[in-house]
Inverse folding.
């Protein structure tokens, strides 16, 4: 299966075509609109947009270099992450995100705090409705907002890159009701710390939040692994 490309922003020539295509694909990946079975083919994407193949290929190659896609014989696809890959990503996040959260808590402004509250309230409503897609979207806004408050842009970009590499994992776990509650409660604690500009609390709560997310993911994986032999036997 190939993914349709629609870039309404393509008329904006203030950005290069490559950058616009990259941003659109990155957004689709982040929101789970490109699945594991999808194949991105540069020639087909370029034809659908009425542009040359080169900027599309450059955007896809950038996504490969950042770990978001891999090349296959049938186009570009989401990488299949192993359990060790996921553990490595969580390890990097546990090393970087608590410190970044502490920095953000000190520097976030009133507008940022207001956006965090809106994202948290969206998350609460999404959990109440059992809407995993809306919860994922609220979580993305929440993360982007506190990362944007960081003065160290390289740190923020590195965190975003590693978090986005596990987008398939994030969307699959958010289907789990217990994980939805973990995300809701984690965002509540983080919002409280950010709104009070409490760097130490933000650091501690971020570390706890990532730890709970990791445990939740492997709990779901273990349950699925146990269910598969039973299904085959049945």
């Amino acid at each position: 299966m190939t993914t349709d490309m629609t870039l309404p922003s393509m008329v904006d020539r203030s950005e290069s075509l490559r950058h616009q295509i990259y941003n659109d694909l990155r957004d689709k990946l982040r929101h789970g609109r490109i699945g594991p079975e999808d194949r991105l083919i540069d020639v087909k994407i370029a034809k659908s947009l009425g542009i040359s193949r080169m900027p599309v290929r450059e955007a896809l190659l950038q996504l490969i270099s950042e770990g978001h896609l891999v090349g296959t014989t049938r186009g570009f696809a989401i990488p299949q992450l192993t359990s060790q890959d996921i553990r490595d990503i969580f390890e990097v996040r546990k090393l970087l995100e608590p410190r970044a959260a502490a920095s953000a808590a000190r520097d976030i402004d009133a507008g940022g705090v207001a956006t965090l509250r809106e994202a948290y309230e969206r998350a609460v409503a999404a959990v109440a409705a059992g809407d995993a897609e809306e919860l994922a979207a609220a979580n993305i806004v929440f993360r982007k907002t506190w990362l944007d408050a960081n003065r160290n842009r390289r740190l923020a970009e590195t965190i975003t890159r590693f978090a986005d590499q596990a987008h398939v994992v994030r969307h699959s776990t958010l289907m789990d009701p217990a994980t939805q509650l973990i995300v809701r409660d984690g965002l509540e604690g983080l919002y409280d710390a950010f709104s009070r500009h409490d760097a130490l609390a933000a650091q501690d709560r971020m570390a706890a939040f990532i730890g709970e997310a990791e445990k939740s993911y492997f709990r779901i994986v273990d349950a699925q692994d146990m269910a598969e032999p039973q299904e085959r036997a049945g």
